[in-house]
Amino acid sequence: MRVRRATLGCVGAAIVLAGCVSSGIPEKLRIAPHKPRIAQVLLAPAPVPPPMLPGMPPPLSPTDVYAGARQLAPSVAGDLPRVYVPNSGSNTISVIDPATYQVIDTYPSQGEEPQHVVPSYDMRMLYATNDLPIGSGSLLPIDPRTGKPGDPLPVRDPYNMYFTPDGRYAMVVAEADKSLDLYDPHDWRRVGAIPVPECAGVDHMDFTADGRHALISCEFAGRMGVVDIARQRLVGMIDLPDGREGMPQDVKLSPDGATFFVADMMADGVYTIDARTFQVTGFVPTGKGTHGLYVTRDAARMIITNRGEGSLSVWDFAQRKVVRTWAIPGGGSPDMGNISADGRVFWVSGRYSGEVYAIDIVDWKLLARIPVGRAPHGLTIWPQPGRYSTGHTGVMR
Fold this sequence. Notes:
single chain, about 400 residues, mainly beta, Methylamine Dehydrogenase, Chain H, 4-stranded antiparallel sheet, 29 strands, disordered N terminus
C-alpha cells in the first residue's frame, strides 16, 4: 500500500490530438529542476523527426500504433485461455478459467509480493514479478501452453517490467533502486541500467510511436521522466502543473501516437502530455483514485480504472472526452488488468477487495466477482492479439 497526502487543485482540460507523430528530443535536453512544480521540458526545434528505433517492427498504420494488435498470432494459437492473478498480499498466483469464471489453480509465486504478470516480447512466456525483498527479487516464468510455473529467475527488484520495442532488452522497473535495469531477455543476464535518481517510485511507462523514447511515471515524486531508449539514459523530467501534488500511475500512448495519457491517483484524473514536445497539455477529471489505462481492441476508446471509488471511466479518442463513467455494482477497487482477445470483457483486479471482476464493456454489466488471494494486483488475461508485447500486463503492438 502506498499512501501520500496531496493538495488538489483544478486544472482546465485543454487537449489537442494530432496525427501520428514521432518524438524529436535533441541529444542535450536539460532536466528540469524539481522546484517550482511547473510543466517544464526545454526543447530545441526538431524540424526533421528522427527515424524509428532500429530493429523495431514498424506500425502497420500511420494513424494507429495498435493496428498490429487486432489478431492472435499463430504462435499463441495453442495457449490456454486463462487469467493470471498475482496476489501481492498472499505471495500466490491465482489462475482463472475465463469460460467458467472459476479459480482452477493457485500456486506460490516463489518470491515475495508479486506485482504484475507480464507477457514476454515474443509472447511465448509470462513472468510474475516478485519485487521483495528489497535488493533482490525474482521473476516466476509461467508457460502459457500449460498454465504452470517454472523455476524462478533471480532479477533485482522487479516491481514491473517492459520490453524495448526492438525486443533487445527487458526493462526491469527496479522501483526501490530508482533504476531501469536492462536484461538480456533470453538468458536473463543483467547487461546495463538506466539510473533515474530524480524519479522516486518509478512505476509505469509507454513508448513513443517511433520507439525511441519512453515516458515513465514517478509515483512518489509526482513527476514524469523521459528516457532515450537508444542512448539508454534519462534525458528530461516533467513537473506536473502548480497546485496539484500528483501521484502518477499508468501511462498509455494514444492510437495516433500524438498524446500520452497519464493516470494520477491523487489528482483523480488523467493528464495529457504531447508525445513530441513532452509538454503537459491538459487534465481530465475521471474519478477518485485514477489508476489504470487500457485501450480497447478497436483502439476507439480507453478504459480508465478509478480505484478509490470503484468505477470505470471511458475516454473516446474521436470525441476527445469521457463518454461514460460506470460504477461496479456493489462497489469495488478496480486496479490493473486487461481486455479479452475479442474485446468484450475487461478483467481487472480488486486491489482492496481480494477479488477479480469480469466486466462486459459492450453491454456494461458485471459478469462475475471472483474471490482470489489478498491484494490482487497486475493481472493479465491470455492469449492476447498482437505482433509483440512491450510488457506490463500486455501492451500489444
